[in-house]
Amino acid sequence: MKKSAISTATLMVLEASGEYRPATPKEILAAAKSAVGYIYGRGSEFSSPDAAREYLSAKLAGRENECFAVLFLDNRNKLIEYREMFYGTIDASAVYPREVLKAALELNAASVLLAHNHPSGETEPSMADMRITNRLKDALAMVEIRVLDHFIVGRDVLSFAERGLL
Questions:
Q1: Do 66 and 6 have their domain in common?
Q2: What domain range includes position 32?
């Protein structure tokens, strides 16, 4: 992830009293998540890993616990819905392929982007990450839904596809 010139000293929060104060890092992340939801709404195109990186970094970075999310896409790689599906602990999250498959069919998705965060900040995939990616890929392939990529969000964002892991 690129370093930014923005600091908490330049981002301000308006208090109920009418006074401004510097934003906390948590408030900055909350604002970023809200802005990303506004910028990348339904119909936004995710045809490159960079667009997904920006979106997912704002959505999943800085969390204290693991969160597994899915971007459900149409046949033109346009966003149908972003859904946070499973929540876990500081180093694990149970993921159920059946639930991902149900949601994909419900939304009539043609493809998906998988994502989860590593609260440690490390983005190297674990064996469990590799196994669940393959299980999801196999389950979704049975109904002709493609897994385009799986991203791990930490201090940076790792793409399984770019690493040749899909």
A1: no
A2: 1-39
